[in-house]
Amino acid sequence: MQINIQRFDPDKDENPYMKTYTVDTSAFHGVMLLDALEYIKTALDDSLAIRRSCGGGVCGSDGMNVNGKNGLACQTLLKELPEKVTIYPMPGMPVIRDLVVDMSQFYQHYDSVEPYLQSDTSDLEAEQLQSEEDRAKLDGLYECIMCGCCTSACPSSWWNPDKFVGPQGLLTAARFVLDSRDDKRDERLENLSDKYRLYRCRGIFNCTNVCPKGLNPTAAIAELRVQQSEGYNEL
Amino acid sequence: MIAVKAFDAIVIGGGGAGLRAALALGDAGKKIAVISKVFPTRSHTVAAQGGINAALGNVQHDDDWRYHFYDTVLGSDFLGDQDAIEYMCKEAPRTIIELEHMGLPFSRDENGKIYQRAFGGQSRFFGKEPVKRTCAAADRTGHALLHTLYQQNVAKRTQFFNEWFVLDLVKNQHGAVVGVSAIDIVSGELCYFMARQTVLATGGAGRIYHSSTNAYICTGDGLAMAWRAGICLQDMEMWQFHPTGLYGSGILISEGTRGEGGRLLNSQGDYYMTKYSSMADLACRDIVARSSMEEIIHGRGCGPKKDHVLLDIRELSEETIAQKLPGITEISKIYAGIDPKQDPIPVVPTVHYLMGGIPTTPYGEVINHKNGKDEIVPGLFAAGECACVSVHGANRLGANSLLDIVVFGRAVGQRIQEVDNASQVQEASRTDIEAAFSAYYEMEERTEGDAFVSFREPMQRLMQDDFGVYREEEKMQKGLGSLQELRQNFHKSAYYKDKSSVFNTSRIEAFEMRNLLDVAVSTAQSALTRKESRGAHSRVDYPKRDDQNWLCHSIVHYDGGFEKRMVNNSPKEVEPVALKERH
C-alpha cells in the first residue's frame, strides 16, 4: 500500500511537502493505520513525527486527516483504506512538525467553558445523589477524548478560531450545563451568549461525522441553544 | 548553558496519581509544576475501565472497609504491606465521595447512588459472601477519573509543562534529590527543573513485554531513573497478566465484563473457571490468568492456533451491555471485528500491571533499602504504578489501582505539605546537574552504531518468552544474561539518526528504550532470585508458596545486588490477616 504523508520540519523545510512510503502490510503485526505509521517510523524513516499513546482509541493522541477525513490512526482499519492513502495533519491548527499540530487554542477554548463541576452543596461528607435519568443526560457528552478531530473539521472554527468555542468546547459546556449536580447553569449559558462563542455553529455536522467516539457535538450545541432560549438569569 | 526553572515541588507524570498529588500540593499553597511527556489526558489512567473499589455499601449495606482490607491482603498473597493496605481501604469511601464532588460522572443505581458492581477477589464477611464494591462510570471509569482530575487542575490553575520528557533525577552530594533534568519535546530545549521535593508519578512499564495492555508511553521512566540514581526497586518480578487482553492487539477488556456476568469459555464449550476456583470467573487475576493458560497448554484453546480463549457475554441483557459495557462493545467491534452480543470475545492473558516499583512509606516517601536498613531519600516521593507502597503485593485486585493512585497521590501531596520547609537548603553543584544530563549528551553525540529501535524487539521477546505467566530457572538465567548483554550494548552503541530539535520523537523513544531496558533487567533479576510461587510469580520449578523463606519483599540494586525486606504485618486498627492458602 502507498502512504503519502505531509512532512514539515520547521528547522529545515521552508514549505511542507509530500513524501510517499510504500508499505508491505504483511511486514508488521497489527491491522490499524497506526501500526503502519509505527512501522514506517521503525523500519523506513525514523524522522516521521506523530503523537500516539494508548493505541486503543481512548487517549485521543493520534488525530489526523486521512484521505480527507479526520480520525484516529489507531482505530482506522488498514483493510478499509484504499491502496493509496494520503495523510495530512489535522486542518485548522498550526503544524509543529509533520503530523503533530499545535492544539493550544483548542485547549484554551476548553478552559474557557470552565470545564469542572461547580456545586454549591455544603455537605462534603456524603455523595450527591443523581437519578439514573439525570445521569443519562451526560451520556454522549462525558466520553469526549479531546482528540480535536471535530474542532479541526469545523469551518466555523477555521474562520473564527479565536472567538468560536468550537464543537469540543461546546460539547464540554453542555456536559456541565446538563449535570444535575452543577449549580452554575445560568453563568455557563451567559458565558456563551455573545455572537461568536456559541452561535457561529452553522449546523453542518462535520464534527459529528468525524467524531471517533460517535458523539454528536452538533446536538449538544443545539441543546445549549434550547437552554438559552428557555431563559436564564442574566448576571 | 542549561536553563533552570525553580519550584517548591515538581510532579513527574500527569496521570491519576500525578494530578491528584498536584491538587493536594496546590491546596497546600506550594509553587508547583506538573511535568508530563504527554498532554495529561493522554496518560494511561485514561484506559482503565472497570472501576474503583470502596466499601461504600451502596448495594449491600453491610459492606465494610475491613472486608476490603482482608480481600486485598489475601489477593496480594500476603506480600502486601498490611499497614498501607489498611490505610488505603479505610480511606477509600471518603476518597470516592471526594471524587464524586469533583464531578466524576459515576453511573448511578435506582436510588441515585453511585453504581457498584462485582469484581474479582471481592467478598463480604472475610471471604464468605460475594459483594458489589467496585464504583463505576460505565466501563470508562479511568477516562472519567482522569478527565475529572485534569478538570480540577484547570480550575486550580496548576502549572503544566506538557510534552516535556524527564531524563534523570538530579541528586546532590548529600544524597538528596533536588529536581530533574528534562527536555522540551516541542523545542528540544534542555532544562534543569530545580525543586525541594520531586514526586515520581510516571506509571507503569508494560512495554518491556511484546504483548501488553499498556500504552506506548508506559516505559517505566520513573522506575529507571530512580534505579539509576542508586535507589532500590522492590518486587519487580510481580507483573500482573490480565486474563482478558483482546487477542491480537492486547487491548484491555475490563474485568467488569465478568463482574456483570460474562464467563470464560474454552474450545470445547466449557465455562472452565468453575473447575479452578470457588469464585469461578471472579477469582483473582493471577488465578484466572493461570487457569486460561492451563486450558491453552492442554489444547483447549480457541482459534486455528488454539492460542486464546473466549469471553462470553451473550447471555447478558441488552440493557446491561448498552449501559454498563458500552466501551467493551465498541472495542470488540473496532479491534476484533465482532459484536459481543452475537459472538464471544477472543481474549488471552496479557501483561497489564506492575505490582512492584519504587518502595515508599504509606505517605509516599521513597525508601532506599540498603544493607538491611530502610532509609528515606530526602526530596523524593513516588505514587501510583511506579511506586510500591506496597498495597498490591504479589497480585493486585481489579479496581484497586485507581484507588491506589488517588489515595496515595493525595497522601504524597499532604506529606509534602507537612515536611517541606522553604528554608531548607537545596544545593546542586554544577557537577550534580551535569551528571543528570551526561547520558543525554552521550547518545546525542553518537552518530553511528546500532539503531536504538533494534533493541526493542529482542528485549520484548526475551521478556515474553522467559518471564511470562510461567517461569523457570534455566530460561530465566539465560534470559537475564541476554538482557544484561543487550543493555550493555545499548549503552555502548545505541544511537538515533535524527538529531533535529523540534518534536523529535525518535530521540525521546531512544531514552524511553534506555528506561525499558533497565526495568526489564530489574524484573529478570528479581524473578530469577525469588525461588517460590506467589501471586503473579509462578515458577514451575518451585510451584509452592514458601513462607519460611520468601514472605518478604525482593529488593534489587542497580549494581546487581539483592536483598530481602520485611513485609509489614502490623495494621493499626485491625488484626493482621493470618497466613492461609488462596483458592
Helical content of chain B stands at 25-40%
CATH level 4 superfamily of the largest domain in chain A:
Alpha-helical ferredoxin
Overall helicity of chain A: 25-40%
The H/E string of chain A reads: EEHEEEEEHHHHHHHH
CATH class of the largest domain in chain B: Alpha Beta
Structural class of chain A: alpha+beta
CATH architecture of the largest domain in chain A: Orthogonal Bundle
What strand line-up does the widest sheet of chain A have? Answer: 2-1-5-3-4
Protein name (chain B): Succinate dehydrogenase flavoprotein subunit
Family (chain B): Belongs to the FAD-dependent oxidoreductase 2 family. FRD/SDH subfamily.
Catalytic activity (chain B): a quinone + succinate = fumarate + a quinol
Keywords (chain B): Cell inner membrane, Cell membrane, Electron transport, FAD, Flavoprotein, Membrane, Oxidoreductase, Transport, Tricarboxylic acid cycle
Notes on the structure:
The complex is a heterodimer of chains A (235) and B (583). Chain A has 9 helices and 7 strands, in the order E-E-H-E-E-E-E-E-H-H-H-H-H-H-H-H. Chain A is of the alpha+beta class and 235 residues long. Chain A folds into 2 domains: 2-101, Beta-grasp domain (Ubiquitin-like (UB roll)), CATH 3.10.20; 104-229, Alpha-helical ferredoxin (Fumarate Reductase Iron-sulfur Protein, Chain B, domain 2, Orthogonal Bundle). A 5-stranded mixed β-sheet of chain A has the order 2-1-5-3-4. Chain A has a two-stranded antiparallel ribbon with strand order 6-7. In chain A, strand 6 and strand 7 form a beta hairpin. Chain A is elongated and about 60 Å long. Chain B folds into 3 domains: 3-238 and 355-419, FAD/NAD(P)-binding domain (3-Layer(bba) Sandwich); 245-350, Flavocytochrome C3, Chain A, domain 1; 430-546, Methane Monooxygenase Hydroxylase, Chain G, domain 1 (Up-down Bundle). Helix content of chain B is 35%, strand content 21%. Chain B is built from 16 helices and 26 strands. In chain B, strands 1, 2, 8, 9, 10, 11, 18 and 19 form an 8-stranded mixed β-sheet that branches. The radius of gyration of chain B is 23 Å and the shape is globular. Chain B: Pfam families: FAD_binding_2, Succ_DH_flav_C. Chain B: Its main location: membrane. Chain B: Residues 8-402 form the FAD-dependent oxidoreductase 2 FAD-binding domain. Chain B: Keywords: Cell inner membrane, Cell membrane, Electron transport, FAD, Flavoprotein, Membrane, Oxidoreductase, Transport, Tricarboxylic acid cycle.
